[in-house]
Amino acid sequence: MFTILESLGCHDIKEYQGEWRAALPEGTNKTAVCVKKNNLSSAIRCAEGNNVGDIFTAVMDIKKLSFGKANKYIHKLLGLNYTYKSSNKEEDKNDPLQIFKKIKRKRHTLDKDIPIYDDSCMKEYVDLPYIGWVREGVMPFACKRFNIGYSYDRKRIVIPERKWDGDDNEYIGVSGRTTIENYEMLGIPKFFKLSNTYPRSENIYGLNENYKTIQEAGYVVCLEAQKSVLKRYSRKDGTATAIGKCEFSPEQVKILISLNVEIIIALDEGIDINLIRKECNKFYPIRKVSYMYDRWGLIKEGSKDSPADMPNKIYKFMLKHRTIYDERERRLLRDWQEKQRKN
Q: Are 261 and 218 in contact (CB under 8 A)?
């Protein structure tokens, strides 16, 4: 950790029993930067205010980098790559980025076979917000941040997905959402893959763009649809992500656990509460996990809307009154699973 802080230009670096403290590059406060040893959480005190997060957000703040560039900066500085090769258990224990390296191990193998696209994947599409989405609450500045485009030829909204831990111009794939009414009657798929590959289950939409805000908030909201993430961002809420379906893949579970924040699951209307508990159980008890569930009839039945599709007042109410997944919730899940087996 001394190496990282020193490379950032921090000075008066001191190691204490449970944390490191240092002064900012141009500062005199010797405790302005604090990094905890147990989980690498960080806090920076400066004239602009207090910034909390982890070692990655600390690098982002001090070096003015994106999350992807901060990630690469730390790995390069420490001489780490994205594969895990060491068999020395003592080295494994003392490696501060071990949990990230375990996640990277599988992704590195995939990256050899699955291409990462750059901004050129969007060159044939128009950089233009779709008016229908704007009317639904997806603001142009949100479309700009997430690089949403439009295809006149295909009549589709073009949605590129950034690699969760990559640079701003690294994408894992591109999909198109149809704007044609009654598309089901016409046999037109709602979503269509516009890139040769798109391993959505190996990524989490919106995490690249919202990583810093998630660390500052101390929680991440997991939704199903990409549009729901855009709606929350349009309301100045950068804590939302999307998994593309109602079940978390093993890789998505690993990525979310590595964030070291509370995981809030907010699936679409109509999903059985026990199926939501089943998804919560994938993270419990490693991380604090909770879920948003409409117990009050606030979301129209059969609409398949998510809490993020509701007015901000309703969303915040459901967020405030979310259910913490604990041992009681776990027992309810086990009872339900036992009944399913008997039936």
A: yes
Helix (H) or strand (E) holding 215: helix 207-217
Q: Quick one: pLDDT at residue 179?
A: 95
Give the pLDDT of residue 62. Answer: 94
Mean per-residue pLDDT of the chain: 89
Beta pairing, strands 156-162 & 19-23: unpaired
User: CA 260, CA 28: separation in Å to the nearest integer?
Assistant: 30
| pLDDT tens-digit map of 236-263 | 999 999 999 999 999 999 999 999 999 9
> Is 108 or 244 the better-scoring residue by pLDDT?
244
- What are the DSSP calls for 61-101, one per residue? HHHT--HHHHHHHHHHHTT--SS-----HHHHHH-TTHHHH
Separation CA 217–CA 285 (nearest Å): 20
Model confidence pLDDT, tens digit, residues 284-336 = 999 999 999 999 999 999 998 999 999 999 999 999 999 999 999 999 999 99
24-60 as b/e: b if 16+ CB within 10 A: beebeeeebbbbeeeebbbbbbeeeeebbbbbbbbbb
CB 46, CB 24: distance < 8 Å: yes
DSSP β-bridge partners for residue 290? 264, 324
Whichever domain contains 20, its CATH number is: 3.90.580
Query: Residue 285: is the preceding peptide bond cis (ω within 30°)?
Result: yes
- Of 198, 233, 266, which one is at a domain's C-terminal end? 198
Q: Which residue has the tokens 């959480």?
A: 41
Residue 36, domain extent? 2-112
- 123 and 105 in one domain? no
- pLDDT interval class at 47 (50, 70, 90): confident
**Claim to verify: residue 102 and residue 14 sit in the same structural domain:** yes
Q: What stretch of H or E contains 49?
A: strand 49-54
